[in-house]
Amino acid sequence: METLAGDIERLAARAPALFARSDGAGSSAAPSSSLPAQLDALIARLEAARSSGSSSTPSSAELASAVAALQTTAAARTKEYYNALSRASKTLERRLASQPPLDASIAEPALFTARAPQEALLRTVWSHLLRAGEREAAQTLLQEAGFTAPSHADFQALSHILRALNSGDLKPAIAWATEHAEWLSARGSLLEFALHRSACLRLALGAAVTSTAPPAAPAEEWSDARSTLGSDDAHDGFSPTQRAMLYASEHLAAFHGTHLHEIQRLLTFILYIPPDSPVSLEMLHIQVPAPYRSFLDAQAMHAPFLAPLLEAEWCAKEGVPREAPLRLAVEIGAGGALNRIAKVRAVMKQSGNEWSQADELPVEIPLPPHLRFHSTFACPVSKEQGTEENPPMLMACGHVVAQESLTRISKGGSRVKCPYCPSESAVSMATRVYF
User: Fold this and answer.
1) What InterPro entries is this protein classified in (predicted)?
2) Cα(301)–Cα(217) distance, rounded to whole angstroms?
3) What's the start-to-end Cα distance of the chain, in Å?
């Protein structure tokens, strides 16, 4: 897989080569004028030559030379890309050809013959299409499959809010958070406060920052906030810092009980911003003391931080998983889980054994960190994973074993000797642990 990943990376590097100059070896170099830009310049020269009879215009030989040079450049860059595409395709073909066919016993052939499993599969695919914004494809699936759509979350509304948030428009996100303020507060969510904090910072910094945006932050993150937050005619004569203070007094007062310290830091930061003359971001980094420079970090204050938080809260409110189940199933299966299970099944078949636990996998499947949704417990005595029926139990000495192991160790009595230390305690003192 590393070879394939390397070829795909090289292919991705060659794609911009159609629009940026590369060296003779085919590797990308410092970008120059793109092919579209060169073509536009050449068209402009041709139109100028046709409309003007002046001797200052390029000669026909010069124009012909320019056209030939552009053709040569375009052909070379296109060849680089298609060579990389061919190598990646061949690597993928070799990789697929080297994979043994999957054992038919891994999947039950009759699994989706009944109506209920078919509808479950259709719901999964249909929901995935909706989450991806493919509403037309989702509707076509319903019509062709004769499937009645169940009630579902309005992912289009979420997409609209996220698009607006990523473009710098906070109004839809703030409106959603305000509508569900009570629910967010009960969850202890930071979302509503973080949105108002971002709005306050935009008002304070929007008209002040005149040069480069902060590192790793798009310039629009720091654009003038009046277009995205609305303009109060009564405050048009106020400076950006005054407008920010007024916004804070109106919208952040409700958070004094939970975020008072952060509000105090925010207002102190605003005091360091010059109220009249615009100042560059570089100068702000010099003028603002170090404890308050975190407010200049767009990654921690604006869309890069707010969008994932909003998506998580929205999915929790709608009762849907944050990650699309179909995408996760494909990612885990294609990431090595299916091949690992196939190898274990083949080994067990050769040894004459069969896996009898229908609700467990025959082998541990390592998952990347972003797919580890909850902690798990494996009993150190029985080596079995904890379940609702066999939960982890904390003994008085501090060691944890599964409930079934605790029962076996106590031999049905009222006291138990810890298998890992000399302590002895009553079975009734053991407490269930939640990981």
Assistant:
1) CTLH/CRA, CTLH_C, Fyv10_fam, LisH, Rmd5_dRing, ZF_RING_GID, Znf-RING_euk, Znf_RING/FYVE/PHD
2) 11
3) 35
CA separation (Å) from 371 to 196, 322, 329, 362?
31, 11, 11, 19
* Residue closest to 326 by CA, chosen among 130, 116, 79, 89: 130
Cβ count within 10 A of residue 326? 17
Q: Quick: pLDDT tens for 116-159.
A: 888 888 888 988 888 887 888 988 988 888 888 777 778 888 88
Contacts of 113 (CB under 8 A, 6+ apart): none
CA distances 58 to 44, 51, 52, Å, are 12, 12, 10
The encoded tokens of residue 220 equal 């629009």
The H-or-E segment that residue 123 falls in is helix 115-131
* Closest alpha carbon to 338 in 152, 102, 124: 102
- Asked if 27 and 13 touch (Cβ cutoff 8 Å), the reply is yes
Question: Is 415 in a helix, a strand, or coil?
Answer: strand
Can you give 315-355 as a three-state secondary structure string?
HHHHCCCCCCHHHHHHHHHHHHHHHHHHHHHHHHHHCCCCC
Distance CA 109, CA 100 (A): 19
Cβ-contact 102, 126 below 8 angstroms: no
Q: What is the CA radius of gyration of the chain?
A: 31
pTM: 0.58
